[in-house]
Amino acid sequence: MSLLNIKDISVNYGRLSALRNASLTLAKGDTLFVTGPNGAGKSTLLKAIAGVVAPKSGTICFADKNIGGRTPEDIARLGFSMVPEGRHVFGSLTIEENLRLGVGMRDDKDVAERELETIYSVFPMLKDRRYQTAGVLSGGQQQMLVIGRALMANPQLIAIDEPSLGLAPKVIDDVYAVLLKLRDTRGLTLLIVEQSSARATMTGGRMILLRGGEIVLEGDARELTKSDALKAAYFGYGEHH
Amino acid sequence: MTALLQILFDALSLGSLYALGAIGIALIFGVMRLVNFAHGDYISFCVFALLWPSIDAAAIVFAGQLPAYLLIPIILATGACLSMLSEVLVFRRFRNANPATMMIASFALGFVIKYTLLMLFSSRPKSIDLWSELALPVEILDARIPLLQVITIIITVLILAALVAFLKRTRFGLEMRAAAENFTMARMLGVRANAVILLAFAISGMLAASIGLILVTQTGTVDIQMGSSVMLVAFIATVIGGLGSLPGAVVAGFLIGGISVLMQVILPLEVRPFRDAFVYGAVIVVLIWRPNGLFAPRSAKQRV
Fold it and tell me: pTM of the prediction?
């Protein structure tokens, strides 16, 4: 049974077509890397799943429910956590308040505290500065905060738009270590947009390549990065859309 | 010294009204980028809820004759309901429209409320006796201060404290602050947009109702223009404070109240009738100096 099932979705911004007939499926515990040049529709794909942009056509099923037309908060409450591009920390809120927002949909207070401690153990920096406003954090620290916040909800599926952006290599390693541990222990499903294929090669999983709003390549991450097909598809070799 | 104290209380009590009005506007602006020009008409509506509808010159007191412990909750509930109703029936349909469209919608709603009141009550101001014993002065350090001024200031401080506690200590408050800063992100974290917005409207409506009650007690009249005059100043206060900033709205509300009272005192007698020109002149100076207001909120810079 697949956790996420996207069939033939297309997204338009006004008259601009951002995504055309994209289909993909993800089973529980899967890892999928989405790669491709700028403007290929990677972020649009994530936003469509999150319910932030409405697809013109096609269906999206998540956790056995058709989520087309549902609000972002409904989709989040089904177990979908989204880390959009361009770190969206709440700068006037404290770090701990930011994290607590992530656990919003779960009423159990003990669970919230435990989640908070887990996140703090992964990112001790956040604990040290828990009562400071998030606006004072550096870019990399904000990235840790938004990833931590997304994990607070203990989601079934986490979608992250460029987790490595602005992070030091050591921190990227830490972030991935956490994500993979959660995948292996809790069956967390990962949907990750990455520009670089190096991380996908290290982590394993599946990979799709988006270009000009279409999925042009799909396969095992390690095999794809080894072959020339990825490079060829990435740059398009002179054929233009 | 006594004159100074008198001026201080005048300024604080006038500023209280402006601050309460400004917060009501800033709260709604924070969560949905709507400048609600119907806010002043909520105030008028709550004031007229004290009366039984009639176009006679004499007021037929309705809710106004209830004891305070019933009257206050009823009028607050009236304000909250009217405000929430306007969100559900009107503003919700415009949520994804551009801010100008929403603003026009709020103008239109304001006119609908105003002319409904005109039909039911006529345009004549009516006198009503609401807690007139509060007009009696009390002696504070030799100065004779109307009790109502003292109560107005105390009530405003209590309302502000309650609001701060709500925003800082409760889950809903946390969600409201997050929503004010970045609504889309808040929703992606599971914050229910409709619930947060509805609650903001309820609080805003109750603030309008409290202004209405204070105004009626102060003036002893019920007048269709009552709300809009406060609303204009309160709106200016939200802009000066930095649209969407709650502390800014409060500070600017008291600031305008203070400046108005001060001008009333220091201006030469012959220019005193033109006081407002000086007050708004000061407003223009502030805006030239700080175009985004005194406390431009973070969300004013980036918005998803």
Answer: 0.87
Q: Which positions 136-155 of A are in contact with B (Cβ < 8 Å)?
A: 149, 153
Q: Which residues of B touch A101 (CB under 8 A)?
A: 174-175, 178, 186, 189, 191
Give the mean pLDDT of chain B: 87
What is the percentage of chain A residues whose pLDDT exceeds 90?
51
Nearest-CA distance A218 → chain B (Å): 28
Q: Is the pLDDT of residue B29 over 80?
A: yes
B177 contacts in chain A (CB < 8 Å): 90, 92-93, 97
Give the span between the Cα atoms of A148 and A165, in whole angstroms.
15
Q: Which CATH superfamily is domain A2-236 in?
A: P-loop containing nucleotide triphosphate hydrolases (3.40.50.300)
At which residue do the structure tokens 């099932």 appear? A5
Domain at B229, CATH number: 1.10.3470
Each domain of chain A, given as residue ranges in start order, spans 2-236
Per-residue pLDDT of B77-134, as tens digits, reads 999 999 999 999 999 999 888 888 999 999 999 999 999 988 888 778 887 877 877 7
Residue B209 has pLDDT above 80, yes or no: yes
Q: Are B262 and B7 in contact (CB under 8 A)?
A: yes
Q: Which chain A positions have a beta carbon within 8 Å of B187's beta carbon?
A: 71-73, 76
- Residue the block writes with tokens 């000061």: B282
pLDDT tens per residue, range A153-175: 889 999 999 888 878 888 888 88
- Is the separation of the CB atoms in A156 and A1 below 8 Å? no
A64 part of contact set with chain B, CB < 8 Å:
no
Q: How would residue B301 be classed by pLDDT, with cut points 50, 70 and 90? A: very low
Q: How far apart are CA B174 and CA A98, in angstroms?
A: 9
Mean pLDDT of B220-244: 87
* CA A173 from centroid of its chain's CA atoms: 16
CA–CA dist B162, B164 (Å, integer): 5
Structure tokens at B261: 């009272």
The parent domain of residue B49 ranges over 2-300
Q: Are the C-beta atoms of residues A154 and A188 closer than 8 Å to each other?
A: no
Residue keyed to tokens 């019920």: B222
Residue A238's pLDDT band (cuts 50, 70, 90) = very low
Domain count, chain B: 1
Half-sphere exposure of B150 (CA within 13 A, CB side): 13
